[in-house]
Each structure stands twice: as structure tokens, then as C-alpha cells.
Amino acid sequence: MNAFTVFLLKELKSIARDPKIIIGMIIAPIILVAALYGFMGSAMKQQIEEAARASGSVTLIDLDHGNWTQSLVKYLEAIGLNVTYSQKDAAPSISEITELMEEGAKILYVVPGGFSRNLTEMTTGAVECYVLMKSLSFIEMGVVSAAESYIKSFSESISKSILINMGVPESFAKYPVLSSSRVVLAGKVFGSPQTLVNLVLSLSLVMPLLVVMFIAFVSQYAVMAMAVEKEEKMFETLLSLPINRTTIIAVKLLVSIIIGLATMGVYAGIFMWFFSNAVSSSFEGSPQGQAGISGESINLFELVKPESMTLILIGLASVAIFMLSLLMLVSLFAEDVRTAQTFTGIVTFPVAFAAYAAMFIDIAVLPPSATIAISMIPVLNTAMSIKFSVVGDASLAALASLSNLAYAIVTVVALRSIVRSERVFVAKLSLKPPRRLFKKYGSA
Amino acid sequence: MSLSNAIVVEDVVKVYPNGVRGVGGVSFTVRRGEIYGLIGPNGAGKTTVLRILATILQPTSGSARVFEYDVVKRPEEVRKIISYLPEEAGAYKYLSGEEYLEFIAKLYSSSESEARETRELGAEISGLGDRLRDKVRTYSKGMLRRLLVARAIMVKPKVAILDEPTSGLDVVNAVIVRDIIKRAVREWGITVLLSSHNMLEVEYLCDRIAMIHRGKIIAEGAPKELLEDHGVDNLEELFVRLTGERT
Prior knowledge:
The complex is a heterodimer.
Chain A: H1 3-17, H2 19-55, E1 57-62, H3 67-78, E2 82-87, H4 94-103, E3 107-111, H5 115-120, E4 128-131, H6 138-165, H7 170-174, E5 183-185, E6 188-190, H8 193-224, H9 227-231, H10 235-240, H11 245-284, H12 300-303, H13 306-333, H14 337-357, H15 368-374, H16 380-390, H17 394-420, H18 423-426
Parallel strand pairs in A: 1-2, 1-3
Antiparallel strand pairs in A: 3-4, 5-6
Chain B: E1 5-15, E2 21-31, E3 35-39, H1 46-53, E4 61-66, E5 69-70, H2 75-81, E6 82-85, H3 97-108, H4 112-126, H5 141-154, E7 159-163, H6 171-188, E8 191-196, H7 199-205, E9 208-213, E10 216-221, H8 223-230, H9 235-243
Parallel strand pairs in B: 3-8, 3-9, 6-7, 7-8
Antiparallel strand pairs in B: 1-2, 1-4, 4-5, 9-10
Helix pairs in contact in B: 3-4, 3-5, 4-5, 5-6
């Protein structure tokens, strides 16, 4: 068994038994995330069910007493709504409306007098639409949209019926003018602007999110990796053992990556379970479930060439190694675990900042020098590299990836150089007051 | 370098980056198969010399060789033939004593069988018996030190470098550790370079000693010869006489 494997097994064994790492990095986050997702799932399910219930029933107060109001009621029932109908002679007061909505459906329509007469005379009729809101949540906003869309849909059906009765073909009656949107981007034409923008935005969001999540998961271990050797008083011994010091660093980096990927895998599993069970099952029972995003699908490789995607992935891996190496450098100089952990934020905070700064940068309005500078800022350039590739600026995308690769190589070489010299032992980063190496006889 | 020499240190100076002078021109030679002691008070420069020989620090000037390997030019070769025990050493607290010995044994061995034999020897030297199955974090200071000394000796290095091997131990554990050191030389021909500020212990244990004071060697030789030459009863008295200080 070679030294790499021996040291790797030792490292994995120590981690698996260290309650600080097991609890702090795995058990506690899993419990927290599971509880969070559980809570979110339960809350969302409840809201969706409530929204389905709320938007599936309406109360209609008829002040019109005309045939068009009856048509409206029939139309609402035909699309599957439960309609509570009542005729009144006078407009209800606000307190009556509130009382009715508190007791019954959250959607209330008031059809004023003259509504049917107007429509018969081909004059615009109006329906007052009330929606009871209690929590101002997104789900309640959906109920508002539903309430408006029922009336809009009825209105369109009337127009269509009239036009068809006049001998207008149904397809023309429905959409006399159709638009066909096209986007011209980097010399190519794409058929679905919304899908294109959604794809690029989500990729631009996912890329840095992956880096941020990875760094967040591994930072605690990576920054403690060498500090823990000092805390366990094994550092000095380790430096004198017949094991290549580069091997020590390589093992620590590998274990960091293993922990990062494993933790991300666990979180991804919980996330997927959450969406496949808790949330999607809630949507199934919703009458508004059909309201999804539609549009042409766009193949990612239509936007980004395979070679550019390879470069982007190299850049992504490089920036992760660069960040890990930086954390490991902090760990090397930290005198103990506490000091190492204190300095973690110095490395990880700019990562989160840089990752999301990309969302607010419009490369089209920036001068070339600024875009070149951006393409060389680690993490930020990872987030931007998808945009660079999509807009056809292959040179900037390549610069972004290659600069990350260069940073990774430089930091790994620096790490290797430091660990092979006595600086690894002499240089210290400490929160404790400095102490003299030789209290009694040492002389400056 | 004579073939009978295990360690040769020539005019080694070490100045730390913060300007502190660790040692200022130390020279000595350790012969094969002897126990050589560096003695002196805390901060005299003993640990600096040992760290240089263990390839952890590099001398600012001068040279140090272990079995003809220069510690600066051939550190990897030096690490293969030495075993270094720092004064404030620990072990991986979430491993058992047995697993710790196995980890070290595998780093020094070329085969599984060799590693197993080394680990078994370490277990025997430590004398910890069934407690080796327990996690290191449950060990007392004496047990930990015995484990670490066993770790340093079981790999049968050409040179064992032991920094204050009995420091802070009770009488029983100190005697056990001294016996292990004696056995290492007697049974496996290991050369031992140790440091101590316990001059009586060194007088009992070492074939030759070097007294180090303010980073310089002020006396060197066999303990008995030094006592006779200076007409003193023990090494502590000699140290006080040579330095003119009351320690």
C-alpha cells in the first residue's frame, strides 16, 4: 500500500470518527435542511391546496337579473368552478362583501345592473371582482390572477361566439394576428426568446451556485485540514515522516473534494425528494396545475459549443481547486483550528459576493477592458463564462477558464512550495498574542 | 565523514525569520550505535538542532548530515532513516493506539507482512496491551508517551531523534521509556540522539553528551569523563560552573 493510500485511509477514518465533523458538517445540516424542506413542503402544500380550493369556488352576486349573467354563471360552471349564486337588488356593502368572502369562496363577482343590456347592445359590460387576501403570499396572488382570468376567458368566448355567428372562421376569430418572435444572437436565430433567456439565466445562476455550495460545504474541512494536525500535535511528526509532503496536500485536497461532492449529493438527494414528493404531488391536485411555462426547448449545445462547454467545466473545476488551495493555505499558517475557522470567512465571503455580482453585470454596455478584467476575476468569471460563450465571445470565455486554471496552478504550486520548505512550520497565523520562541536565551 | 559516524553537525547557525537566533555555530558528531544527549535548560537551542536534523527546519548556515545524507539537499532520504519524536507530540486522537502504530508502520514498510511485524513490535515495546485497542484520546500522558516512543523505535530507524522523551512523566513511565531507549540501542543497534534538561537522567542514559547554552556547545564528552575532568559530582554542578549561572 503506497503512502498516498495509507494517508488517505487514515484521514477518512479520522473524519468518520470525529464528532465535530460528523455533526457539524453532515448530521446538523441534513437535519436543518430536511426540517427546512419539510416545513417549506408542508407550507407550500397547504397553500397550494388552499389556492386550489379558493380559486375553484366563486360567489356571484347578480344585480343584473339578465340573460348574460346567466351565461356567465353557466360558463363558470362549465370550466369546473363551484358557483354560489345569489340575486340581490342593491349593491352589497363592503362589510357584506367581507362577510360573504369570510364564509364562502375567496373570489366574489358582483355583476351590476345593466350588464346584460350593455352586452346585448354591444356596449362593454363590467364585472366587479373581489378577492379576499389574508397573507399576501404568492399563492394568493395566483388566486387574483385566476379570478381575473375567468372573466377574461368569458369575455373572449363571447367575442368568439359573436364573430363565429357573423360567419368569421373560428381560428381567425380567436387569433386574427399571430406573432412569431425570433432572437438573433451571435449570428444565430433562436425561436423562443423566453426559453433562451430562462436557460442562460438559470445556467448563469447554477454555475456560481455550484461553486458557492461546494466551497460552503468544504470550507470547514479544508480550512481545518492542516490546523487539525497542529491541534492534535501531529504536525511536527508528520513533517518528519517518510511521506512526500505534496502527497499530504494532495490527500487533504482529495478528501475536501470527496466531502464536498458527498455533501452536495446528500443535499441534492433531499432537494430532489422534496420536489418530487412534497411539491409536485401538491401541484397534481391543483386546478391551476396546467399553468406552466411553455415554449420551445433549446438544446444547450445550440447555445454553447462543446469545446466551449469543456472550457467552462475546466474553469469550474479550476476555480474550485483554487478556492480549496486558498483555504488550505490559511489552514497551513493557522496555529489552531479556531484561528483557521475565523479566517474561513475571509476566503468564502468574497466567493458568494463575486458569484452573485454576475447577475447585475451587463456585458453589452461595458468597455472591452472591463469585460477582460471581469473575465479574469475568479468565481465572477465562472458565472460570466456561460454568457460569454452564449454571446459568441469565445476568447473571453476561454480567458475566463484559462485564468481560473492559472490561478489554480499558481496556488497549488505555492502550496506545494510552502509545504516543502520550513515556512510551513515557522510561519504562523494566530489569534493568540505572539510569544518568543526562546524565552530565556534567545537573542534577536 | 567517517563510516563510524551517524550524525555530523558542522558549525550550524539558525536564525528564525523573526530574528531570534536559535543556535549560533553548533558542531558535534554522534557515533553509530551510541546514545548521545544534548543537554541544557529550556530555550538553549536543543530543539532547534533536533528539528534541523529531522528536516523540519533548515540551517541558516553550516551543514548537518545523517548517515552521509545532507539534511538540506537530501531531506527525503534523511526522513527514511530517522524517526523523530517531538517534545510536544501527540497522536491522532480518533484512532486507536493499534491503528496509529499501523499507520506509521505502513509508511515505513514495503510490504503488508513487514508492516504487520513492525506494528506488533510497536505494540510489544509500548507495553500497553489491550489498551492499544482504545482510542488515543483516552490515554494518560504516560501511556501516550510510551505509545509515541514505541512508534519511534518500532520502525528500527538508523537514527532515533528524541526530544525530551521523558519530560513531564511520572517515575514509573520515565523508567519504562528509558528502558525502551536502552533496548533500542542494545537489540537493534539504533543510534539515539536525545535532548533533555534533566541532567541526572542524561548522565544515566547517554554514552556521550553535549552541553548546550545560549545556542552554543560549552562542553562535550562522556558524562564520567566530564565529571572527572572538572572535578564535580554531577552534570548539574558542572553546568552551573561552566555557565556561571544558578539554573
